[in-house]
Each structure stands twice: as C-alpha cells, then as structure tokens.
Amino acid sequence: xxxxxxxxxxxxxxxxxxxxxxxxxxxxxxxxxxxxxxxxxxxxxxxxxxxxxxxxxxxxxxxxxxxxxxxxxxxxxxxxxxxxxxxxxxxxxxxxxxxxxxxxxxxxxxxxxxxxxxxxxxxxxxxxxxxxxxxxxxxxxxxxxxxxxxxxxxxxxxxxxxxxxxxxxxxxxxxxxxxxxxxxxxxxxxxxxxxxxxxxxxxxxxxxxxxxxxxxxxxxxxxxxxxxxxxxxxxxxxxxxxxxxxxxxxxxxxxxxxxxxxxxxxxxxxxxxxxxxxxxxxxxxxxxxxxxxxxxxxxxxxxxxxxxxxxxxxxxxxxxxxxxxxxxxxxxxxxxxxxxxxxxxxxxxxxxxxxxxxxxxxxxxxxxxxxxxxxxxxxxxxxxxxxxxxxxxxxx
Length: 396
Known about the structure:
The protein is of the alpha/beta class. The chain contains 11 helices and 15 strands.
C-alpha cells in the first residue's frame, strides 16, 4: 500500500465500458485473460447512438454466447429492407432505396445476419454477460486517471465515485475504449482526430405510436424534408420507441422537450393526437472521418467507419496479435484499414418530379450524407407495394 492507496494487478485494464470495452473483456476471457473494466458512468447507455451491428459483429456476439439475445432485440427484415424519403412522415413517399447492408437476412457471406438494434440494448446484454464472467472485473461509476506506461506495463489510479476509495492498478496492457475524446489515447500520445461536418442535429429519443402511418412503409431510416428543418426518423423497437435527428435547429436556442415534441408532431404531418413522450436529448455532429495523430504504436491505427462495428472487430484482434508478437520476442505494429462502409445504392424506378424540389433542402441539411451518398437517386410514386413485389425487386 502506498499513501493509503490499495494496489491490485490485472492482465488488461480496459478504460471504457461501452460495447467495445465490454466485448473486449469477453473475448479476452475466452483466451483466459483477466481484465478490469472501468467506466465513468454509473450504468450502461440510456441514450443509444449506434443502431446497427453488421454480420461480422454479430458473429462476435455468437462467439461470446449472446447472439440470439441480440437478434431478439432487433427490428427484423420488414424494417431493414429500405430507406425512405417523405415530405412528412404521414405524407407522400418521394423515394425509397434498397439497403442490403442493413437488411436482417442471412446471406452466403456469413452464417450471421446484420441486426438493427439500439446500442443500449446491446450494452445491457454485454454487461450482464461480463458481470457473470469470473475473468472480468467491472467497475462502473469509477474514474481512471494518471495512466502511465513503462517497459513492465501500465499503471493507473482508479477511484470509486461513490466512496472516494482509490486503487492503483498495474496491468500488462491498457485498452482505450472511452470514445473520441479518450483520456487513454491522450495519456499515451495517440489522439484520435476527427474532421466534423459543419452540420449539427438535435438527437431525440422518444416514444409514440406511429404504426398507423408507417405499418405499410417501414424503413431503417425515414428521411423528412420539412419547413422547420430536415430530419431523419429511426425506429428503435419497431413499436413505440423512436429516435429523431432534427437538422437546422438554431444552436443559440435551448432545445426543450416541449420544442422537440412540437417539432416531431409537425414533422408527422397528420392530425394525430397520439401522445409523444420525449425521453432523452443530446446534440449530434457528424464526422467526415477519423485519423490518429502521431505517437507510439501501442494503440492500433483504426479508422472508424460504421460506429462501433469496425472497432469492435479489430481492437481485440490487435491485442491478440500484440500478445503473440510479444511472446515471440518482438512488438508488432499493425496498420488497419477499412474500406468504404456504404456503396452507392440503386433507387426504385419512379415517376414524378418531387425529388427535384426535395434534393436542395436535403443537401443543405447534410442528411444526404447519411444515405451513403446514394448516386442517381430517383423518386418513387405511391405509398408502397405488396410484399411479393418487394421480394422480387430486392432479389433482382
């Protein structure tokens, strides 16, 4: 004991208990590696940010024994076959674009399928799995500071935010899974820089029953061109829970639950008295890309592409490689790259000129970037087609 600080040892210290940190601890446990996971928050996420696990990420869920639990929280194929554009959510459909990378169906590429689900559901499942793992020590509501490294490994002081008790942790490795503004990366000297778009959104999680307006035209992303500002509606459970990203909001004003409710009701575009219950709100800014600053090679050079998916797949793989390299007497430097996450999508054939008026507002808002820069976009007339027609179109 030094200066009344308790000391403890672990093989890997993981700073950050989100999906990356929790999955990392479970994969390490499968290799017989003990880890200690520290997170500043008192609980897992209540405001989900990421919303899609691609097939390789779901393969990892299977590896740690939670694949079916994650699939059970997903939206399913009806919600993930298309992205759609409207003048208002209850109004005329302007166009639709097939989304094979979203679609929750199995392909010949993997025995797993993409799952569109909310991050808070996934985190809760991973947390419960990690809590029952004897190789994982979870410390939430705990602050990590004074992270240092030398030839022997790393050391860090962690402090319980409730009791104030401090512990000096010694570990062979540290994993920084604490987000874009990672204190772990800053301590090691490999900051992650991001080039953000000059586009801001208000990210609102709310509950409402919009089934009478969306039951026959479901989609993973429902884009709205609205006089009050463009937006995208995103179903979180396919029943009542929604996410809405509101563009064009005056950042000098304070976003309130009342404003958000009125905006959502206006964007719905129908005289519908259904109650709208706003749960959480936060500001959102989209990055064009991320890159690592220069520094020591202890952290992998990872370029984020699709939220948690890419990092979830490579961070732990990097650690595995480094452990093997160190065991062989040498340190391995990995250079990891990710290809384009979204390809240009072919749109449904259409009639009408609605998109000509829609596109300028869409481009000004920045929302067209969320569609993966779907080139050659054309509008679509009508409110939808039969299930058989959809299947034929998708298979073509």
